[in-house]
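User: hey, got a sec? need V/A-type H+-transporting ATPase subunit I folded
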Amino acid sequence: MAIEKMKLIGIIGNINKMNKILRLIILNGTLHLINSLNRISSEDFVLPPSEENIKALEEIPYLKPYTSRRDFSREEEIIKNLIGIFNLGPEIKGEYLGQDYEFDDFMKQIFNVYSTVHSIAESIEDRRRSIEQKRIYIDNLRYLEKYKVNIGKLVNMKLLSFKLIRLSKENYSKLKKNYENIPAVVLKITDEGKNVVVASITSKSLEETVERIFSSLNFTELPLPENFNCSSKSAIKELEESIAEDRKFIDSMQKSIENYKNNYAIEIEKAYARLEMEKKVEEVKTSLAIGKKLFFMFGFVPESSAEQLKSELKATFGEDVIIILEDVDKKSPGLTPPTKLRNIAIIKPFEEMVKMYGVPAYNEKDPTAFFALSYLLLFGAMFGDLGQGLVLFTAGILLRLFKKSMAVFGGILASLGLSSMIFGILYGSFFGSEEVIPALLVRPMANINLILAGAVGLGIILIILGFLYSILNSYIEKNLEEALFGRNGIAGFVFYILLIYMVYVFAAGKSGLPPTLLSSTAAIIVLMVFKKPLSSRLTGTKVLYHDSPVDYYIEEGFGVLETVLSAMSNTISFIRVGAFALNHAGLYIAFATMAEMTNSGTGSLLLLVIGNIIIICLEGLIVFIQALRLEYYELFSKYFRGDGIEYEPIKINLSISKSISLMRRHSLKRNISANYAF
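Assistant: Yep! Here you go:
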């Protein structure tokens, strides 16, 4: 439940081995990369003058950014086409990447395989298109099967044009009414439901005119084969035999592709994995500094992983790499380490909810544990029900087990369900009913004032803890001004306690406020207004104000007013916790009343089930949002800045199946030479 300590690492390596070094770093998966030129140009960068570093020191004046980024679009297209042809679901495995290989040499074999397989796949595709066309011919020839005419002579007439067309019945009626205006012989062939198939014979010279007329009637031309000198029946038989031959050819070619798949499937998977690695390598290179013979890269590594990365690099590349490991605390303030949160499993899912607000700064206290506990407390108090909580808990567990992409949300849902169950036992609520189990603490609807007062009391406790968190953060940052005199520091904390006490005095009906209380409150306000000059005096800083004193006091004056107003509004805002606890019970009572009015056992049960579903889904979502609002606006604003940089190491996800859906018929390119220059 903390932020992991970081080390600053510098890696200087031989350009000739840059790709291999970068692959190892990516596979290690712990380096958070920063811009190398920015690091080298910073004031505190020092490369010790030693025999090991002499070559690196000579390179520094000639360093420049890496600009010649390689384009892998051709390789990617070929690999994806092969994956589509072989119907593979490749995985990125470590054993495919950790081998010592040259990517270009390895890809030559893949290009050769693609050249052969692509040709076979194109042949198969051509035969499939041929089969489709022949089926169309067969379907159209069946309309003429009853006429004993030579189909070749009919289609290839020199002076006349023959067409088989399909029209809707409505348009066919229009056609019949205008026969005298059409310079063609039109013969109805068959009636097929909503459409009519007709044959048209016209002079070649009038073909264009007739076609314009048919176009106005939204006709569809039914193509006929031209290379048959026989009847329609005989042509159909020949086409069916040709289709059978095409199928035999396709089966033969598919067996050939299957053989290639058996021989080269692993190589294709390797190619896919290695291409992903090379793309990541090129991405990393954009942050490097390149010299004549050496490259420089810098980044942050978790303290627990720094020595392992260093030893892996040294064991593999020996004197070809220079490793510089430095403590982050000794670096310049302009160098901001990333934040890597480290929490136990039950709290870890709530890191995502914290990051929705912001990432904790490296030198800030990780708020995840406090957030998780307080959020569960707020949610359970507002949505306390043993049965409904059990539903949420079960749903969360199922999500974690069977939907890995939703595992984080499943963990949160399971925790919320558990909290709801605990408060359900305290409230004596089971699927909304307060008559099934006894209440260990209090029944909300029977103790409305107590519930509302308890909600405000809970808010006061959480706000006080928020102040303590803020003071701790200021202490860690060595920010004396905010720790002692800030609105969320000791002065703000004391002011809040005094303000709550004053409200209590009024609520208790006591006459007047003690003078010492009023003077103490006024003194605290003065301390907050004069926090800048006071902290400057304490630290010995000569400059009391960074800007105009008038502007400073106006701003602080309004700031104190805001502090007073927000202190009350933040506290009162927690009354919604009690309100939703009452609303939860009240909503069930509404459904229970409607169920009683149905006068039907089955109907009542069904209505109660529907009511519980609505309560779980709708009210559960509203409570989820309201609890989040209390955390973000009433608590985080007190102690959490969220202006850190998230730790994002350069890595490649291993053993993750990446299914590529490609339509084989549309993905293959016609010209292999256009895809890659051998």
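Quick note: The chain is about 60% helix and 10% strand. Let me know if you need anything else on V/A-type H+-transporting ATPase subunit I.
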